[in-house]
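This part of the workshop introduces the protein records we will be handling. An example says more than a description, so a record of this kind follows.
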Amino acid sequence: MGYVRGIRGAGAVLLAVVLTAGAAGCSDSGDSPSDAASKAGGVLSSATAEAQKKVDEFKDGAEAKDDVKIGGVTKDDGRATVPVKVTNKASSAKTYLVLVSFKDSGGKRLDTVALTVKDVAGGTSQKETARSHRSLDGHVTADILRALRH
């Protein structure tokens, strides 16, 4: 039962970030407030559905933050990227859901990415890249909000 509460908590965090990112991503477009609201609603609906889908896939997820390490942030066409290394310490293959938070130099959260790393063989590591949903200005850092495995 504790895992279910943890999953719901991960979903709530992800939903809050999606709401913030969706609203921020549409605010500087130069559109009228109603146009921006309409676009934000479409982006939010899509992002919310995707976030819920990812959380649903991890109904029996176990905490796995110790299995995940991230490297330094770089930029690719303005979007922040960070290497993510997952090490499966179990003997059988596992799939991981990693929530990576991108922050500015003051610690303010700019974006959060849900990264799924599938079928990591037992006793091995797998590398993936988390990429922000939008361009991020200035110095950006990253950390792991949550990691689950099943």
Remarks:
- The chain has a mean pLDDT of 75.
